[in-house]
Specification:
heterodimer, A: about 575 residues, alpha/beta, Rossmann fold, four-stranded antiparallel beta sheet, 16 helices, about 15% strand, B: about 180 residues, mainly alpha, Alpha-Beta Plaits, 5 helices, about 10% strand
Chain lengths: ~575, ~180
């Protein structure tokens, strides 16, 4: 099929290293003794645990429910017992722990009852909710919850659907072997996506360095009742990036700060389409994925891996070798170093790349930037990496944002071509997270200001309310007294014709004081010592002593008050 | 001669009227500079600057009654931003107002709390929940870490817990690059 292809700007062509792992068949990784399943495997809110420690779970059972719209559920990858829900080290560049559900497997691998969904009969909203609860998230690397992406939004339709089989990053071959072996199911997934998005044009973009995958997909597409165009695209890194794939296939660019759906295009990884087909046609939630284990291992290959399997197990299966210098999750261009080989495989783990000194020699020491702008030529996002580097390094984040830092896809082309070997992407990541942190602080400060202002307002209001209440009470009392006091002293009230109100006011006050005095005297009388007649002289003396002590204490207690009043 | 004077007087009257009218019509409520300063301050409302809150401090700076280096929670960064806004030289933090501390939130030991409500009255952002003779607790997401609740507590059951770095708040560090020495 011939289709006019477009060339995005920049890009590089690093050595592919695909042949190492794509020739071996897919192996199912054996069931590990323990599964560690992080609750935060996707973008958005982490899942909420819905099981307790000690509970027995079955394969495919929901263990973490989706929390909010942008979230996805997590499921038990095999049957067993939940032994802990605690922070464990997760596959993240920070090496920090995060909440995980730890399951000791029982080896029976017993499925929970599951059945296929009739996606045509279900309303779209219900189907999307079901997919969210089946833990569907993009398997291309960003792990964005798929249910959100399958919503065409207010436009009601997304004319173009692109399945991304680019897999431009060196070393990784999981999408390649998936397309070779499961082309039919990938396209079944595409049919469901088409149903939900109302797409009329379905394209599959595959880099030309995967002829077997292209052939398999074309063969599968020929059996369908709708048209799917399988397009071979040139192998240029990062041609498999969503925005680059869109530009290559359609010649259109996603505007800065917008989504591809705004121009009527939605892109899914082929792995996501496969997982969607498994979920809908078999009722299987996302509990496993294909992982390429390659690099410094004896038998680089692809495994079908249960989510939560420790990476170390897979490296041992592929044959670990001496001289390992580190492990990357992902490829050499965008991969993140793992804190230790024991971290579990998650939905985002497309590749485990074992590094050695021979395969990945340490970079020479960086030299200062000479502003050669080779990075600008290579940048597929059409940015000015040398300027962004300058601003990020100087902490001038405002200027970095003006230069569209957030359009950077962190593909690493700039670092790859930099003759000074500067870790440019690290600077952009630093600047981005610094900007996010500042925005968070700003929001917190705004909240604190608002609450403080409300508190001041509340205090004022309370003061006013109290004063009003007191005034009302005093007025009521006065009125009451004026009524009561008018009867015994009619002469007094009649006397002063000139200022009746004033006089009655003064009288009322006087009466109030008199009443208070009477009350105080009555109280005093009540408190006066009883049972004091017929005392022996000894008792009398004792009483006097106590009284003297009391008087002294009273004196002492009065003193500081007096000084305060003086001051 | 007379015409010239007349024209000038007329002009003066017209311009004066326009200026006078616009002074009333386009009157700015509050002090815009104080608001800009207030936006930079961290809003901890801790009073370490010697003013009862961030806004009074901002107003004092705007009037020139306070220096820009009296806010320890804002840190050197805050001083720099204030200096930039006001067009003055940044200066080191005034240590008499305290030193910057790592961000923390207050934590009430609920076993020890006697429910006296003194901390609730001290909290500038109403981030403590509780009632008389009932246990109190802190709304951690709203606590600014101002430490104003510490002194009034009669049983010393409030402590400041530094905020630990977790996954969603983790930041990429500034890359350390050793530049090659070229002679």
């Amino acid at each position: 099929m011939s289709r006019e292809l477009f060339r995005f700007k920049g890009g590089v062509h690093p050595p592919e290293h695909k042949a190492e792992s794509n020739s071996r068949p897919i192996h199912a990784a054996p069931l590990p003794k323990q599964l560690v399943i992080p609750l935060r495997q996707h973008i958005g809110n982490p899942a909420k645990p819905v099981v307790n420690v000690g509970e027995r779970v079955l394969k495919g059972q929901l263990i973490g429910a989706a929390d909010g719209t942008i979230s996805a559920a997590v499921h038990a990858s095999s049957s067993g017992t939940v032994v802990a829900i605690e922070p464990r080290t997760v596959p993240h560049a920070s090496g920090l722990p995060d909440t995980c559900i730890v399951i000791d497997t029982d080896g029976r691998d017993e499925w929970i009852a599951h059945e296929p969904l009739d996606y045509r009969a279900l309303p779209a909203t219900d189907l999307r909710m079901k997919l969210r609860d089946m833990g569907l998230a993009g398997l291309g690397g960003a792990v964005f919850p798929s249910a959100v992406k399958l919503d065409p939004g207010p436009a009601q339709a997304c004319p173009t659907l692109i399945l991304n089989g680019g897999e431009c990053e060196p070393w990784i071959t999981c999408d390649d072997v998936l397309m070779r072996h499961h082309a039919d199911e990938i396209l079944q997934g595409a049919a469901i996506m088409r149903h939900l998005l109302g797409s009329t044009e379905i394209l599959v973009g595959i880099e030309a360095n995967k002829p077997e995958a292209i052939a398999a997909m074309e063969a599968a597409a020929a059996n369908l009742d709708f048209t799917v165009e399988v397009v071979a695209v040139p192998s240029i890194y990062p041609g498999g990036g969503a925005k680059q794939m869109i530009e290559t296939l359609t010649g259109r660019q996603v505007p800065s700060g917008k989504l591809s759906t705004d121009i009527g295009i939605q892109v899914f990884n082929v792995g996501t389409a496969y997982a969607l087909a498994r979920a809908v046609h078999h009722g299987e939630p996302m509990i496993s994925r294909l992982v390429t284990v390659t690099g410094h291992v004896l038998r680089p290959q692809n495994f079908e891996v249960l989510i939560g399997t420790p990476m170390q197990t897979l490296i041992e299966l592929a044959g670990d070798r001496d001289g390992t210098t580190g492990i990357l999750m992902g490829g050499p261009m965008m991969g993140v170093p793992m804190p230790n080989p024991g971290v579990p495989v998650v939905k985002a783990t497309n590749c485990i790349l074992v590094q050695s000194r021979e395969l990945f020699p340490p970079l020479p020491k960086p030299l200062p930037c000479i502003r050669c702008t080779r990075c600008a030529d290579a940048c597929p996002a059409e940015l000015q990496p040398q300027e962004l580097f300058r601003f990020a390094k100087a902490g001038d984040f405002g200027r970095a944002q003006e230069y569209h830092l957030f359009d950077c896809i962190e593909c690493g082309c700039c670092s790859y071509v930099c003759p000074s070997h500067l870790p440019l992407v690290d600077f952009y990541r630093y600047a981005k997270s610094e900007i996010w942190a500042r925005e968070r602080d700003k929001r917190a400060a705004d909240l604190a200001r608002e609450r403080h202002e409300f508190r001041l307002f509340r205090q004022e209001r309370e003061k006013a309310e109290k004063a009003a209440k007191l005034a009302a009470k005093a007025a009521a009392k006065r009125a009451e007294l004026a009524e009561g006091g008018a009867r015994p002293e009619p002469a007094g009230a009649a006397q002063a014709d000139g200022a009746p109100a004033e006089a009655s006011d003064a009288d009322a006050k006087k009466a109030l004081i008199a009443a208070a005095l009477a009350r105080a005297q009555a109280k005093k009388a009540d408190a006066a010592p009883k049972n004091v007649d017929r005392l022996t002289p000894e008792q009398q003396r004792e009483i006097e002593e106590i009284e003297a002590r009391r008087a002294k204490i009273r004196e002492l207690a009065r003193k500081p008050l007096a000084t305060e009043e003086d001051a | 001669m007379l015409t010239a004077i007349g024209v000038m007087v007329l002009l003066a009257i017209v311009i004066g009227t326009v200026l006078g009218w616009s002074a009333i019509r386009f009157r700015v409520e509050g002090n815009p500079l104080a608001e800009k300063i207030d936006a930079i301050l961290p809003q901890t409302q801790c009073g370490q600057c010697g003013f009862p809150g961030c806004k009074p401090y901002a107003e004092a700076i705007a009037k020139g009654e306070a220096d820009i280096n009296q806010c320890p929670p804002g840190g050197e960064d805050g001083v720099k931003k204030l200096a930039e806004l006001l067009g003055v030289e940044p200066k080191p933090l005034d240590e008499t107002h305290g030193a910057p501390k790592p961000k923390s939130v207050a934590f009430i030991d609920e076993q020890t709390c006697i429910g006296c409500t003194l901390c609730i009255q001290a909290c500038p952002v109403d981030a403590i929940v509780g009632a008389a003779k009932q246990m109190h607790t802190i709304i951690a997401s709203e606590c600014t870490g101002c430490e104003l609740c510490l002194p009034p507590c009669p049983v010393d059951c409030i402590s400041m817990v530094p905020i630990a770095e977790d996954l969603p708040h983790w930041k990429w560090k500034h890359p350390v690059i050793e530049l090659k020495q070229v002679a």
